[in-house]
Amino acid sequence: MAGQRVIQLTNKPDQLSSRDDEAPRFVRLFALHERQVRGFLFTLLPNRDAVDEVMQEVSVVLWKKFSELESDDGFLPWAFVVSKFEVLMYRRRLARDRFVFDEHLIGLLAAEHPIEDTKKPVQEILKTCLVQLSDADRTLVLSVYASGVKVVSIAERMGVSSNSLYKSLGRLRRKLQQCVEAKMRSLAT
């Protein structure tokens, strides 16, 4: 099957050379903005493994659709949109297994993410906001989102209902979201 694909590609030399010409431009733009895209993914995903997995998918989609990009200036906003959709697809795959950000929250976080460069990465802002939480709240958030432990397991260990824990996590997510948004607004001004 791979041999057939090579034959098909080599039968269209104009299309192949067109992709070869785009490669250096894509690599330059991707390298320039990869850290910002990765930082954006860190605001939407619970841990580094999830970010790495989704970043791979984002990279593939960006390359496959690169010919649709109209200008180099539009690369970062376009990459953020692709990232948002890849996060939603990733979330749908995991939804039945563990507690993850809901689609509405992902949309809000993505909409609030500034397109322009900022001096302080979003990841650092989130860390600052996490430090402002009480020790118990911070431990709870990190145990769910950083370690990937299921909410049901944590609830059992804490001796509370999983419903109660979900409500607490929802309150903490809103608190973190408000903190990140406030700090991002202050950086934008």
Automatic annotation (TrEMBL):
Gene Ontology biological process terms, A to Z: DNA-templated transcription initiation
Keyword Transcription: yes
SUPFAM superfamilies: Sigma2 domain of RNA polymerase sigma factors, Sigma3 and sigma4 domains of RNA polymerase sigma factors
Keyword Transcription regulation: yes
Ranges for domain HTH luxR-type: 148-175
GO molecular function: DNA binding; sigma factor activity
Pfam assignment, any one: Sigma70_r4_2
Keywords: Sigma factor, Transcription, Transcription regulation
Domain of life: Bacteria
PROSITE patterns documented for this protein: HTH_LUXR_1
NCBIfam families given in the database record: Sig-70_gvs1, sigma70-ECF
Family designation: Belongs to the sigma-70 factor family. ECF subfamily.
Stated name of the protein: RNA polymerase factor sigma-70
Organism the protein comes from: Neorhodopirellula pilleata
